[in-house]
Amino acid sequence: MDGLIHTIGASAGTSSYDILVGNSFLHDAFGRREVTSAERIAFIISARIEGLYGEYVRTALGDIRGKSFFFTMDDREENKSYIYAERFLEKFIAEKINRKGVVIGIGGGVVGDFAGFCAGAYMRGIPVIHVPTTLLAMVDSSIGGKVAVNLTVGKNIVGLFHQPALVVSDLHFLESLSEQEFKNGIVESLKHGLIGDDATLELLEENDLRSIRGVEAISALVSRSVRFKTSIVERDEREAGLRSILNFGHTLGHAIESSKGYRGVSHGQAVAAGMQIKIEASRRMGLLTDYEANRVNALLKRYGLVPGGLDLDVEMVMRHMEFDKKNFGGEVNFVLLKGIGKPFINQRIPVDLLKRVMAEIC
Ligand SMILES: NC(=O)c1ccc[n+]([C@@H]2O[C@H](COP(=O)([O-])OP(=O)(O)OC[C@H]3O[C@@H](n4cnc5c(N)ncnc54)[C@H](O)[C@@H]3O)[C@@H](O)[C@H]2O)c1
User: What is the rounded average pLDDT for all residues in the chain?
Assistant: First the structure.
C-alpha cells in the first residue's frame, strides 16, 4: 500500500495545516505548495537518516533540488541544545536562507524539536515542515507546535509555540526503527488511548508488536493518534488546562528517568512504568475498577512496555518528582484517571501509597 493514505487537517490559534500519513510518498509530499513556494529550503536531517535514507530523500526532491540546502545533525539528545542551534542559525545566514525560506526537519523528536526551534527563532520565525521518522515523533512530538532546546540545567527549557506548516509522516522510514524505539511510540499512543482515544485502545488490543507494524495497522494507529492529539491542541494550544492531560504518566516517567541519570531506561520505558504505577495507585484509591486496571496492564504486558528489573530507588524518584517543572507551589500534581478515557488534572496521590506501589511494582 504505497502513496498518501490519510490527510488530517489541524488548526491552532490562527494557523491551520495538514498532516499527511502515507507510505513511500515523500516525492509527492515535496510537490506540495508549502514546500514548492519557498525560495530556499533548509533541510535539517538526522545523520542516521541521511545514512539510511539519503538516496530516498534526494530522489524525492524533484523540482526543488536546486533550492535545497542540507544541514546534517548528529541527533543525540545533548545536541538538541541552544549552543548547537546557534551554529545552525549561522549556517542558515551563510546559505542566504531568508524570510521566504522554509525549514524541513527530517528525523525523530530530537530533530523535530531542534528544527522547529531554529525555524521559530530565525528572523522572528519562518515556516517549519516536520518529516518525523520515529513512531514517537509521528504520533506525538511533530503535532501541536511545542518546540524547544535544552540548557545544561535541564531539558526543553528554551522553547516556543511554533505550529508547523505541514507534517509528512512517511511510514517507509519506520522500517529501520529498532524495537525499543518503536515501543517508545506505542507508549504515547497508549497514553492517548487511556485519556480518551477509545479507537486507539481497541486498535492496540486487536494487534500485537508484530502485527501493528503492518502498513494498514500502523497507518491507522498514526492517524488516530494524530487526530486525537490535534483535537486536544485545537482546544488548548498553550496548555492553559486541557492540554496538560497529555502529560499523563510523564511526571512520574521524568522522575524515573532522571533518578536513573538517564541511563539504562528509555523515555518510553520510564513513562510506561509511570503509567503502571499510577494505574495501580488509582485502583487502590477506588478510581479504577479491577477490570479497567487489568485491561491496561494486559496492554503494557502484550507490547512489553515496562522492562523487568527497573530496581527503582523510591526516595530518589520522589526527590526528582519535586523538581519537575510541571509541578507548582511545591506540590506534586498528577493527571489521574477516574475510569479509562476520563482524565482529571492537578490530582494528588497520598505519598505513602505512591511509595508503596512503586516499591512493589518496580
Ligand atoms: N515537542 C513535543 O511536543 C515533544 C513531545 C514528545 C517528545 N519530544 C522530544 O522528542 C525527543 C524524543 O524523540 P524520539 O523518541 O523520536 O527520539 P530521537 O529523535 O532521539 O530518535 C531516537 C533514535 O532513533 C533514531 N532514528 C530516528 N529515526 C529512525 C529511523 N527511521 N530508523 C532508525 N533509527 C531512527 C535516532 O537516530 C535516535 O537514535 C525528545 O527530545 C523529547 O523531548 C517532544
Answer: 94
Cα of 361 from ligand 1 centre, angstroms:
27
Grid cell listed for 200? 486507539
Residue 109 CB–ligand 1 contact under 6 Å: yes
Cα separation, 150 vs 130, whole angstroms: 19
Q: Is 216 exposed, middle or buried (0-12, 13-18, 19+ CB in 10 A)?
A: exposed
pTM value?
Answer: 0.96
Whether 209 and 179 have beta carbons less than 8 Å apart is answered as: yes
Q: How confident is the model at residue 306 (pLDDT cuts 50, 70, 90)?
A: very high
Cα–Cα dist 79/82, whole Å:
8
pLDDT at 328: 46
- Element (H or E) spanning 298, and its range? helix 290-302
Is 46 close to ligand 1, i.e. is its CB under 6 Å away? yes
Mean pLDDT of the region 3-18: 93
Residue bearing the bigger pLDDT, 133 or 237: 133
Q: What is the dihedral of CA 151, 117, 89, 78, to 10 degrees?
A: 40
